[in-house]
Structure formats: C-alpha cells, structure tokens
From TrEMBL:
Gene3D superfamilies: P-loop containing nucleotide triphosphate hydrolases. Belongs to the AAA ATPase family. Residues 414-547 form the AAA+ ATPase domain. One of its GO terms (molecular function) is ATP binding. This is AAA+ ATPase domain-containing protein. The keyword Transport does not apply. Residues 74-85 have a biased composition (Low complexity). InterPro entries: AAA+_ATPase, ATAD3_N, ATPase_AAA_core, ATPase_AAA_CS, P-loop_NTPase. It holds the Pfam family AAA. Residues 166-193, 221-250 form a coiled coil. Signal peptide: none annotated. Residues 74-100 are annotated as: Disordered. It comes from Ceratopteris richardii (Triangle waterfern). Keywords: ATP-binding, Chloroplast, Coiled coil, Membrane, Mitochondrion, Mitochondrion inner membrane, Mitochondrion nucleoid, Nucleotide-binding, Plastid.
C-alpha cells in the first residue's frame, strides 16, 4: 500500500513536474531545453518517468543536485508556470557540458518538484495547475484553429495573389505579344516600304536607261539617215551634172548636124518653096474670082427685086440690134460676175487665180491644186527657199516662221502679222511668196502705191480686198509691197483725205487677230509707218544687203539661171518661133565668181540678177555665144563702175 501510495504520489509529482516543465516551456523554454526553443508538442506522459530520471542522474560532481532550495524558490513555481523568464534566479556562472547543455534549469525544476511534492497543498496545486493547463490547451487549440483559419485564409489570399499575379502576367504577356506584333508589323511595313522604294528607284533608273538607250538609237538612226540622204543627194547631183553635160554635148552635136544639113538642103528648099508659092497664088486667084462672081450675081438679083431688098435690109438691121444687145448684156453680166467672183482690182498677183475656175484652166494652177511637189520636196529636205538667197540667220528665222504659220493654220489659231524692211531688191517679195507657199497658204500681192489713185473708191476697194481674202479656204498671206506709200503716218501733210480713210479702213480690218489673213508689209522706210500699223505687227524682219557669201551664192544662182540654162527649147513668142542659142561657159571657176562677189560690195540681190542678165546679153552680143572669164570680168567691172556712179549721184542728190 505504501508503495502504491508512493507510486501514485510519484506519478502526481511527475505530472506536476511535467506541467512545471511545460510552464517553463510556455515562459519561453522548457527546463530540458534551456536556452533552446520550447517543444511545440507536449511530451508523452507515459513514455517518460521523471523520478526515475532524477534517480538515474549521475552523482558526478558537475551534476550534483542541491539538497535544499532557497526560500524564494517556493513562490517561483507558479511564477515559473506563467511569469516571464526575467523572474528566474540569476545564473551568473552557468555550467555547461562539453555538448553545450546547461542542466541548471532542470535542476531548478527538480528542486521545485521536490518542494511541491513535499507541500501539503500539493494536490490542490496540481489540480489548479491541471486546470490551468487544460484551459491553456483549450486556448492553445482555439489559437491553433484560429491559426489554421488564418493559415487557410492566407492560403486563399496566396492563391488569389497567385491568380492575380498570373492574370497580370498573362495580361503583361499579351501586351508584350501585342507590342511585339505591332513592332514586327511596323518593321515589316518599313521593310516593305524600303523594298518598294528600292524597286521604284530601280524601275526609274531602268526607265531612264531605256530612254537614254532609245535616244541614242534614235540619234544613231538619224545620223545614218542623214548620211544616206547626203550621199543620195550627192549622187543625184552628180548624175544631174552628167546628164546636163550629156544633153549639152548632144544638143551641140545635133545643132551642128542640122546646120550642115540645112546648108545642103537650102537650094532645094528654095526652089520647092517658089513652086509651091506660085501654085498657091493661082489657087487663091481662082477662088477670089469665083466668090466675087457669086456676090455680084446675088447683088444684082436683090437690087432688081424690091421685095428681096426690103427683106435684106430688115434682116441686117435685126442682126445688128441682136449683136449689140447681146454684147451689152454679156458685158453687164460679166461685170457682175467679175464683181462677185473676181479678184479685187488692187491685187497685182495671186496664187488663187483671177476666178475660182482659173486654176482648172492653166497648168500652173492645176499643179498647185494637186500640191506643188517641188515645194513639198524642198520642205521635206529642210531646203525650202531654194531660189531666195538670204543671210543664214534670216533664212532660219523665215523657215521657223513658215513652220509656225503652217501649224497656226492647222491648229486654227490666229495668225501673226509681219514687217519685212530693208533696202530695195533684197528679196522681201520673194521671201514672202516662198513663206506663203511653204506654210501652205494662198498669197496675194498688192502695192501700196495703187491705193492713192483710187481716191474715194479706196475704202470700198480695201473692204473688197479683205472680203475676198477672207474667202480663202487655206488662209491667205496678203503682201503689201511699198507699204509706206499708203500706211504712212496719218498726221503727215502729204496724205490725202481718201488715203487717210483707206488707212483707217485697213486698221479697222486688222484690229483683231485674224484666223484667215497673214498681213505682211514690206517697206524700205519702216520709220514712215503709222504707229497704229506698227502696233499690229508681231514679227519684224530686216533684209540687209547681201554679204560676200550671199553674193557668191547669188552669182552662182543667176549664172546657172541666165547662162547655163539659157537657150533651151524653141518657144512661140509674138507669132514667131524663137530659139535661143545655148551658151558655152569656159573657165568661170569658183575663184572668178568669188573675185566678182568681192568687187560687188553694196550690190542688192536685184542688182546682181540684173548684172548676170547683162552678162547674158553680152554673150549673145558676141559672135560665138561663149562666156569666158575675160568677158565675165569685163561686164562685172562695167557694172561695178555703173553702180558706184549711181550711188554717187544718189548721195549728191540727197545732199
Ligand atoms: N535674196 C535674194 N535671192 C535671190 N534673188 C534675189 C534676192 N533679192 C533680190 N533678188 C532678185 O531681185 C528681184 C527682186 O526681188 P524682190 O522683189 O524680192 O525684192 P524686194 O526686196 O521686194 O524689192 P523692193 O523693195 O524693191 O520691192 C528678184 O526677182 C530676184 O531676181
């Protein structure tokens, strides 16, 4: 019994010690683990026996348990259960094992347990301690549940945070993806743009290269064509030269043969002619005698018979009246037709012909109707104005004007009026005609001097002229030569009233730009023109006296025209068959021509043409129709002296 009581007491002490240890652990550390964190789980009551543990403690001097505890240690038990570790007795010299374990707390716990065991109120203390322990465990369980709730809440929050983080991450990822797609898209677009730009530049360079190559090819083709043309031209020229020479030789041979034949047959012919003439005379005499015999018989019969006489007189009178009436009627009708369809009297020369049907009646007119092939060919070659020799710059300008006028007509634009001025005989009229032909227009030529004699009729005639000019389908170039004669300054005293009216009529008709008429004025005194007339002019061209180069060309032109081509076919003139002899040219070299051109300084084109006509005259005046260098020089020297004399007289007259 005693042993049982002792054992139960020991068990209680153990429990109390356990509680005490647990209290110590609640204070921050258990007695077994002093200096280390308290155990989370309470120790198993049955697995460990404190008294046996105490008894089994070694009695080594280092682990000796004090036999008596100091008085304050009794109160320390409850304090140890709940109080802070600061209330524990100080241990200024802690004893530790080699493994670092400090058994002091354990010793104190054992001491306390011993005190409790020895106390009279041990049971109560242990009960209260158990209750406290249970309460504490309940609290602990509640805290644990709370802790678990908090932990699960934490878990939920953690999940939420994780979800939020993932969502943000996904969002960020999608943003990054979108940004990356945008960036890639932009890069792709830029790359495409760059490629496109590159292709465009490449294409434009290709096009440029193609253009350049086609231009080069075109230039090459043109050059080749020009060379071919030049060669062809040269060949044609040479062939023409050979043909001309052949014809000349043949004609000369024929002429010589014919002259010889004629001489042989002359006597025979004369005899035959005399015989034929006497036969003709007899025939005519017989016919006249017979006719007069019949007339005499008839007259006798009429005069003896009165009725026949009356009938004859009546018939003759009726015939005379009929003839007169018909003639006057025809004259009236013709004057009406002339007024309506005819060319105005002011026109001296025109490509249109006097009447609309005139072109059908002449070879030249017919030729112009179907297009003048020579002019067209000259235009094609760019060698128009073949017979007009001008300074190269002036020549070029007139050609440009011809082309521009042709285009103007083609595009139905208004024409440009022109003024040609310069010394007399420098080719103004010729250039105007050529200009009209090359631009495909009709031309009409009038002289300013023809207006003054018309008096009061002048205004009507000017209007008539412009009405007629406006009817041309092709357009008409109206050339007024000596324009200063009637278009001079209106304030001048020499101008008559009718002339002034005529000028006003012309100003009225040319006030607007015309689509039908190109007005070309020619004058030697441009300063005399009325200011209103000058205002109507768009192009002003000066025709100077020919320079040395032009004089050489003019001499060649007229040498060919008046000498080389002279005396070709038989021509019927004034009821006679005329035949000019051919002229033989000897030793007229380029040097001779150039020498003559040098001497003829100050000559106009007309004077040069006339000089060559004089050379022709001199040749025909000689015995053998041969032009050699001596005869040529003689005529030129004579003409140069004459020219200088004329100039001297003119200078003296003006002084
Ligand atoms: N540049 C030239 N080229 C060829 N021949 C010319 C040239 N200039 C004048 N002639 C000759 O002189 C003649 C008169 O020429 P044209 O009538 O064209 O001169 P113009 O300047 O109109 O003279 P004007 O002022 O006296 O009317 C022509 O028929 C031609 O034979």
């Amino acid at each position: 019994m005693y042993r049982l009581a002792k054992a139960s007491r020991k068990t209680r002490i153990f429990n109390a010690a356990t509680v005490g240890i647990a209290s110590v652990a609640a204070g921050g550390s258990c007695l077994l683990c002093a200096g280390r964190p308290a155990h989370a789980e309470p120790s198993n009551e049955s697995s460990f026996s404190l008294p046996s543990f105490i008894n089994s403690l070694p009695a080594s001097p280092g682990y000796s348990i004090p036999s008596a505890a100091p008085a304050p240690a009794q109160a320390a038990a409850p304090a140890a259960a709940s109080g802070p570790p600061n209330d524990l007795p100080r241990n200024d010299f802690p004893r530790t094992s080699a493994a670092g374990f400090d058994p002091e707390a354990l010793e104190r716990g054992v001491q306390m347990l011993r005190e409790i065991t020895s106390s009279l109120h041990a049971n109560k203390v242990f009960d209260s301690l158990r209750k406290q322990e249970e309460t504490r465990q309940a609290e602990e369980a509640a805290r644990k549940a709370e802790f678990q709730a908090i932990q699960s809440e934490m878990e939920v929050r953690k999940q939420q945070v994780m979800y939020e983080e993932q969502r943000k991450l996904a969002q960020q990822k999608s943003q990054t993806e979108a940004q990356r797609a945008r960036y890639e898209d932009e890069l792709a677009r830029k790359r495409m743009q760059a490629e496109h730009e590159g292709k465009r530049i490449l294409n434009s360079e290709l096009v440029k290269m193609q253009e350049e190559s086609s231009m080069r090819q075109e230039q090459l083709r043109r050059q080749t064509e020009e060379q071919i043309q030049a060669q062809r031209h040269q060949t044609e020229k040479e062939r023409a030269e050979i043909e001309r020479e052949t014809i000349r030789v043949r004609v000369m041979a024929e002429a010589e043969g014919r002259a010889h034949e004629a001489k042989l047959a002359e006597d025979v012919n004369r005899r035959m002619l005399i015989e034929r003439a006497s036969l003709e005379k007899d025939k005519w005499l017989a016919a006249i005698n017979t006719t007069f015999g019949h007339i005499g018989g008839g007259l006798r019969a009429v005069l003896t018979d009165q009725d026949k006489l009356v009938v004859m007189i009546g018939g003759i009178t009726a015939l005379a009246a009929g003839v007169y009436t018909t003639r006057e009627g025809a004259r009236v009708i013709w004057s009406y037709i002339d007024r309506v369809l005819g060319q105005p009297s002011l026109i001296r020369e025109s490509s249109r012909g006097k009447y609309p049907w005139s072109k059908w009646l002449t070879f030249k007119g017919l030729k112009s109707l179907f297009g003048n092939k020579e002019v067209q060919a000259a235009m094609k070659d760019g060698k128009g104005f073949g017979n007009v020799i001008l300074h190269p710059a002036l020549h070029k300008r007139i050609q440009h004007l011809a082309a521009a006028t042709a285009n103007t007509k083609f595009h139905q634009a208004p024409f440009r009026n022109m003024l040609f001025y310069g010394p007399p005989g420098t080719g103004k009229t010729m250039a105007a005609k050529e200009l009209a032909m090359q631009s495909g227009l009709d031309y009409a030529l009038m002289t300013g001097g023809d207006v003054a004699p018309l008096g009061s009729q002048a205004v009507t005639k000017i209007h008539e002229l412009f009405n007629w000019a406006g009817k041309s389908k092709k357009g008409l170039l109206l050339f007024i030569d000596e324009a200063d004669a009637f278009l001079c300054e209106r304030n001048s005293n020499v101008m008559s009233e009718s002339q002034r009216s005529a000028l006003n009529a012309l100003l009225y008709r040319t006030g607007d730009q015309s689509k039908d008429i190109v007005l070309v004025l020619a004058t030697n005194r441009p300063s005399d023109l009325d200011s209103a007339v000058a205002d109507r002019l768009d192009e002003v061209l000066e025709f100077p006296l020919p320079g040395e180069d032009e004089r050489v060309k003019l001499l060649h032109l007229y040498l060919d025209k008046y000498i080389a081509q002279a005396g070709t076919p038989k021509s019927w003139k004034s009821g006679l068959w005329n035949r000019q002899e051919k002229i033989e040219i000897r030793n007229i070299t380029n040097d001779v021509i150039t020498e003559a051109a040098r001497k003829m300084e100050g000559f106009s084109g007309r004077e040069i043409a006339k000089t060559m006509a004089s050379v022709q005259g001199a040749v025909y005046g000689s015995k053998n129709s041969v032009l050699d260098a001596d005869l040529f020089r003689e005529v030129i020297d004579y003409k140069v002296a004459e020219h200088q004399q004329r100039r001297k007289i003119a200078t003296e007259g003006s002084a």
